[in-house]
Design a protein that fits this description.
With 206 residues, this protein is mostly beta strands. Helices cover 9% and strands 46% of the residues. Strands 1, 2, 3, 4, 5, 6, 7, 8, 9, 10, 11, 12 and 13 form a 13-stranded mixed β-sheet that branches.
Length: 206
């Protein structure tokens, strides 16, 4: 799958999540305690703000894009995860939102920070399997790549190895600051509240 496009929707969210926030009824029991704080940066192909969060159809044929969770401080059991990152890239079928097509996405790939040692990789894989669209698609892969972020003035530049990049910035609100979206219909522990942005460039090749 290869796409290269100019995409308009992005956002940034500050995070504090732990095991109790994301445990699902059909999820295999994992008693390992974990907690992470950091930032989530996300971009997709829809016009801002992404309508999927409001149960509306994608503004393009599909909704596709990526999210990267930059961990400032975290642990999985006794395994420290400070300064590492995990990412995912996925795409909904044509004419369907991410939410209504969950389980049948065209693909959903996870990317694990290659800086992580073997023990940290296992921990990051476990967390990614809980918070980065678990069960979204039957077509899944996990890859180990460098995940980087560069901030120049207001522009954020994210790179997911050789597979993906997205650049963007927060939108300026009409009365100052960035618009905040709180508890949209599609909210989950990662997307309860976020600042709305706009993507200036996005590429994906995997």
């Amino acid at each position: 799958m290869k796409t290269t496009s100019l995409l308009p929707c992005a956002f940034v969210a500050a995070l504090l999540i732990h095991a109790a926030h994301v445990r699902a009824a059909n999820e295999p029991k994992d008693t390992t305690p974990w907690k992470i704080t950091g930032q989530l940066e996300e971009a997709c192909s829809c016009d801002a703000a992404c309508p999927c969060w409001f149960n509306s159809k994608p503004t393009k044929m599909t909704c596709g894009g990526g999210q990267v969770l930059f961990i400032q401080k975290g642990n999985y059991g006794k395994v420290k995860l400070d300064g590492l990152a995990i990412a995912s890239i996925g795409q909904s079928p044509e004419g369907q939102t991410m939410m209504e097509s969950f389980g049948n996405w065209n693909f959903a790939y996870n990317y694990i920070d290659e800086k992580a040692n073997p023990e940290q990789r296992k921990a990051l894989e476990a967390i990614a399997g809980k918070v980065l669209t678990p069960g979204a698609s039957k077509k899944t892969e996990t890859r180990y790549v460098p995940i980087t972020r560069k901030i120049e003035s207001k522009e954020h530049q994210i790179t997911i190895g050789q597979y993906g990049t997205f650049h963007g910035h927060l939108i300026e609100g009409g009365m100052g600051g960035s618009p905040k979206i709180v508890n949209p219909p599609g909210a989950d522990p990662l997307h309860h509240q976020y600042e709305q942005g706009r993507t200036t460039k996005m590429t994906y090749n995997d």
